[in-house]
Amino acid sequence: MRCGLGQFHKPSPEFLKFAKEYGATDILLNQNSDKDNHLLDHNNRWELKDLVSLRRTVESYGMKLSALENVPTKFYDHIMLGGPKRDEQIENMIYTIKNIARAGIPIFGYNWMPSQVWRTKPEYIRGNAEATAFDYDSAQNLPITHDREYTEEEMWENLEYWIKIITPIAEEEGIRLGIHPCDPPVPVLGGIPQLMRSFDAYKRLIEIYPSDSNGIEFCQGTFAEMNDDIYEMIKYFGERKKILYVHFRNVSSQVPKFHEEFVNTGYVDMHKAMKIYKDVGYDSFFIDDHVPSTFQDTPFGHRGRAFAMGYIQALIESVTKG
User: Fold this and answer.
1) pTM
2) From CA 123, how far away is CA 146, in angstroms rounded?
3) pLDDT the model gives residue 215
4) Domain that holds residue 303
5) CATH number of the domain where residue 181 is located
6) What is the four-CA torsion angle of 87, 217, 1, 290, rounded to 10 degrees?
7) How many distinct structural domains can be found in the chain?
């Protein structure tokens, strides 16, 4: 088990130096938009040379580019929603995922949220640090986000269609794919069913096409927001080797209402969670994902991330050396 660090978009020298200094061995880059993106958009797909350059940049700092997370939503929104450009987008996504694999990047994490992550008014936690929050009652008053309301059945049909196409290709290319849970994990937001919102949904996902390449981007913070037992989910999916990497963060409670917390102040016993990862033989990396906004910190959250990275590394040592 290892400590990693993630960043949106281009890996700046400052970010890579910070990651190395504070003990990261693995880097995750989230590429969910075109803003300041190291990966150029070539007609809604990525080219091999750009991906190789990205990996080499990370390696030049003595770390491994272990995962890419997300593509711009416009790359595959018709796949998620069954739109008229679905087949065209599938071909482009196949091209992109093949190039990720051939560039030597072993994991691609993505999501099934056409409307992205939702939050409502933030809350203030320890020492008046600001944390993102969600209240389902407030969110239900917001308008629909797309052309119409979609049904649970058609969203599952679209997901199954995609999984059955892309998983055999991922197997051939030697890459593992994993879906991030819907955050927040509630039934519907903006007219879009939030499919990946429960333990049962993920059990269904991994059975659509049983394969090592059909895995889970295990955002522990979002799984902890679900109305399920977080420790049982870690054990179940960990034993089945479905957890590709972990967003190791904490929250105050489960839906319908929660706020994010410091890594050591939420309702989840993070030492207990870490011990379960160790006991099931988990052998990948943890990242903080994101952190509360604290006094005189940077927009990236350098102070908060340094605290979380130190905590993660201490927990790893506590369960592996104890």
Assistant:
1) 0.95
2) 28
3) 98
4) 2-320
5) 3.20.20.150
6) 120
7) 1
